[in-house]
Write a structure and sequence with these properties.
The structure is a single chain. By secondary structure, this protein is α/β, with parallel strands linked by helices. Helices cover 29% and strands 22% of the residues. The protein folds into two domains: 72 residues, no CATH class; 175 residues, Vaccinia Virus protein VP39 (Rossmann fold, 3-Layer(aba) Sandwich), CATH 3.40.50.150. The longest helix has 22 residues. The chain is globular. The structure holds zinc ion. Zinc ion binds next to loops.
């Protein structure tokens, strides 16, 4: 993509890379202001440079709340088709000469061990929900450095993934993983069906939520299990109180789902929330109602939800 750098501008309404959108969940344009903050007040990561997008420290980022369905989202947000700038051009400094991302270095081995241990918990959670006796196909939506796909491979699980960040995609390919850009995948593989779909720390990034639904609907079948986690509107309040914005980073994180909004959204493609959590005690599966777990767990502004597909046909968005 060839870019003309934007002149620094404090108002995103005048920025050609950004657009004001109606509610991405219900389509209605009736919002109230939920939160706004100048970019300079967010955590400044040295490795990220958004100046090419015309963003400076005084550029005001705004978060809206839909008066109809209560969805909370960044608005204006990066225009469809320009997401690549946020995920590729702005990150050049992050990967340059960084041993963490050079396969085989000690730094890289430590990094992937740590991440794999984190992701193993998630993989086990969803593997416990399905029969593992037959061959299983897993799809990783936003597969990053391929930690989950690598783990799945170890378990003899066939996997595929998509990733928008070109560096990470290249990294996965070097590991021999079956990964594609979203466009490549859509052009060739939308007829494939998967038993498990993982969407880890991804949904908050997605600008085109209709496309997300289209993909997960096309590649799922009855009883496909989908794992997703992300950030809720509460996170913005929590980080505002601390005066530290780390995860509420409004250029990359544009969607703040509450549990009920996410359930409503996923229902459009017949994915329904799994109501119980399975824990293993001495190798035996025990089912615990999620309502109980939510009462016990303090709300830290993060959600984790598992859905199961109930029927085959797509009813439209
Ligand atoms: Zn809405």
């Amino acid at each position: 993509m060839v870019l003309e750098p934007m002149v620094n501008n404090n108002n995103l309404m005048d920025n050609k890379y950004f657009e004001y959108v109606s509610c991405p969940i219900c389509g209605i344009d009736n919002v109230s202001l939920f939160f706004s903050i100048p970019y300079g007040k967010l955590k400044q990561k040295k490795s990220l440079d958004y100046s090419i997008l015309g963003i400076n420290k005084n550029t005001v980022l705004t978060v809206s709340k839909c008066k109809n369905c209560k969805f909370v989202f960044t608005n204006p947000r990066i225009r469809k088709g320009y997401e690549e700038i946020v995920y590729n051009e702005s990150k050049q400094n992050l990967y340059k000469n960084n041993k963490t991302f050079i396969i085989g270095t000690t730094e890289n081995i430590n990094f992937s061990r740590g991440r794999k241990l984190q992701y193993l918990t998630i993989l086990l959670k969803i593997l416990n929900l399905i029969s593992t006796d037959n061959s299983i196909k897993i799809f990783d939506f936003g597969c990053g450095f391929g930690h989950t796909l690598s783990l799945a491979k170890e378990f003899g699980i066939d996997g595929m993934g998509i990733e928008i960040d070109n560096f990470r995609l290249g990294y996965c390919k070097k590991l021999g993983l079956n990964v594609y850009t979203p466009d490549e995948f859509k052009a060739e593989f939308l007829n494939l069906k998967f038993d498990l779909i993982i969407c880890q720390s991804v949904i908050e990034h997605i600008t085109d939520l209709d496309e997300f639904l289209l993909i997960i609907d096309s590649i799922s079948k009855e009883n496909t299990v989908l794992y997703t986690d992300g950030v809720t509107p509460k996170l913005i309040k929590i980080e505002n109180k601390k005066g530290k914005f780390v995860k509420a980073h409004f250029l990359e994180h544009v969607n703040y789902f509450s549990g009920t909004t996410l359930d409503f959204f996923m229902r459009k493609v017949a994915f329904y929330p799994f109501k119980k959590k399975i824990v293993l005690v001495n190798g035996r599966k025990i089912f615990i109602p999620l309502t109980l777990i939510r009462i016990l767990r303090r709300d830290k502004g993060l959600f984790e939800r598992i859905y199961i597909k109930k029927r085959k046909n797509y009813e439209g968005i």
